[in-house]
């Protein structure tokens, strides 16, 4: 039985999509595949018995019948971490819980896919970083990374060093066309000269970027004020804090954007409705727009949602969501399978 930990250098690398795509690719080769995310970090709330969305999606896409408490033995919520800091958690017992859950899930499988946290150092408070988990569960580790600037190499080298001999190599994901040649001709040879194999350079694909209006609405807990379709992509956030005339000029220079503004800014709302690149209007502070604005939005098919949070908090949450590259459905994972098959050494990763 082979165990592969898919970890990452940072949040928003597309780690979940890569992990599930590799699981599906292994299954396509006839392997019995299991999945586990030892530390649940993508949580729905900060308190209580929360669930990580990634194992829930894995169970659905891989047709697994495992229980959530097995797939996610440690719920790494802020409340849990506070308890660990206060000495309320037994580190040895937690490691044993992870080990026992793994043994149960791995029984009868040929390949176990383990998913790490967004940050490989998450879990240090209980001695369960991604490197600790690779050691505990005798797994090889694949790093998933982005490349946007040369300093990204520092994070890759640090993560690889922490993983030691268990580091299988790195797959670059969502590499822009502007950076692709640099990665291939300069970054790859440099990393390999430092003992870090590069097992894939996956190009940026538009259909893998951004989130849908529906994703945004669900994650924000927003109230929809129109019946417009919610499948349009949101790739950037614009803040409507200027005059209506200035806002219109600004909005018209963008595409696939969500405009965030107050419910009392009818001029900005009207400008957003007139801009073809705006796909959603988000009103903060729990305010509702005028009937005229809502009527125009309905006519144009523009989603309008309202949230209780303030503008700054809303911006941060949406940007985090967009940057996170959330895995939404089977189609996203299937597209990642295609990308990995074309641009990564899947044989070296899975064999």
Provide an overview of this structure.
It is globular, with a radius of gyration of 22 Å. It has 351 residues and is an alpha/beta fold. The model is unreliable at 45-49 (pLDDT under 50). The strands form four sheets. It has a six-stranded parallel β-sheet, with helices on both faces. The N and C termini lie close together (11 Å). 44% of the residues lie in helices and 19% in strands. The protein folds into two domains: 2-208 and 327-350, P-loop containing nucleotide triphosphate hydrolases (Rossmann fold, 3-Layer(aba) Sandwich), CATH 3.40.50; 211-323, HprK N-terminal domain-like (Udp-n-acetylmuramoylalanyl-d-glutamate--2,6- Diaminopimelate Ligase, Chain: A, domain 1). Strand 12, helix 10 (244-251) and strand 13 (257-262) form a beta-alpha-beta unit.
The CATH topology of the largest domain, please? Rossmann fold
Elements, N to C (H/E): EHEEHHEHHEHEHEHEEHEEEHEHEHEHHH
Distance between the termini: 11 Å
What is the helical fraction, as a range of percent? 40-55%
Radius of gyration: 22 Å
Low-confidence runs: 45-49
Q: How many β-strand stretches?
A: 15
Mean pLDDT over the full residue set: 88
The CATH C-level name of the largest domain is Alpha Beta
How many domain regions? 2
């Amino acid at each position: 039985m082979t165990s592969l930990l898919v970890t990452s250098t940072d949040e928003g690398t597309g780690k979940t999509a890569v992990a599930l795509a590799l699981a599906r690719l292994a299954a396509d080769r006839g392997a019995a595949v299991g999945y586990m995310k030892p530390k649940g970090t993508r949580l729905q709330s900060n308190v209580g018995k929360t669930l990580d969305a990634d194992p829930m999606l894995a169970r659905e896409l891989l047709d697994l019948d495992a229980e959530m408490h097995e797939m996610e033995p440690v719920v790494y919520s802020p409340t849990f971490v506070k308890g660990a800091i206060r000495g309320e958690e037994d580190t040895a017992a937690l490691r044993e819980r992870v080990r026992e859950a793994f043994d149960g899930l791995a029984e009868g499988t040929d390949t176990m896919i383990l998913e790490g946290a967004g940050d490989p150092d998450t879990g240090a408070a209980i001695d369960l970083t991604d490197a600790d988990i690779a050691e505990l569960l005798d797994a090889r580790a694949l790093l998933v990374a982005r490349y946007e600037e040369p300093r990204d190499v520092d994070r890759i080298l640090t993560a690889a060093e922490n993983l030691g001999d268990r580091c299988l190599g790195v797959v670059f994901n969502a590499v822009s066309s502007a950076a692709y040649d640099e990665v291939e001709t300069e970054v790859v040879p440099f990393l390999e000269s430092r003992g870090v194999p590069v097992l894939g350079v996956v190009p940026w694909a538009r259909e893998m970027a951004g989130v849908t209006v529906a994703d945004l609405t669900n994650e924000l807990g927003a109230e929809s004020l129109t019946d417009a379709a919610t499948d349009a992509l949101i790739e950037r956030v614009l803040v409507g804090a200027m005059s209506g005339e200035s806002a219109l000029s600004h909005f018209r220079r963008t595409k696939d954007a969500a405009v965030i503004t107050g419910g009392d800014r009818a001029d900005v709302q009207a400008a957003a409705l007139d801009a073809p690149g705006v796909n959603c209007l988000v009103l903060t502070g729990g305010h509702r727009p005028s009937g005229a604005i809502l009527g125009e939005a309905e006519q144009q098919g523009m989603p309008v949602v309202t949230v209780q949070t303030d503008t700054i908090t809303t911006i941060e949450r949406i940007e985090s969501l967009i940057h996170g590259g959330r895995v939404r459905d089977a189609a996203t994972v299937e597209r990642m399978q295609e990308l990995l098959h074309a641009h990564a050494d899947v044989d070296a990763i899975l064999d």
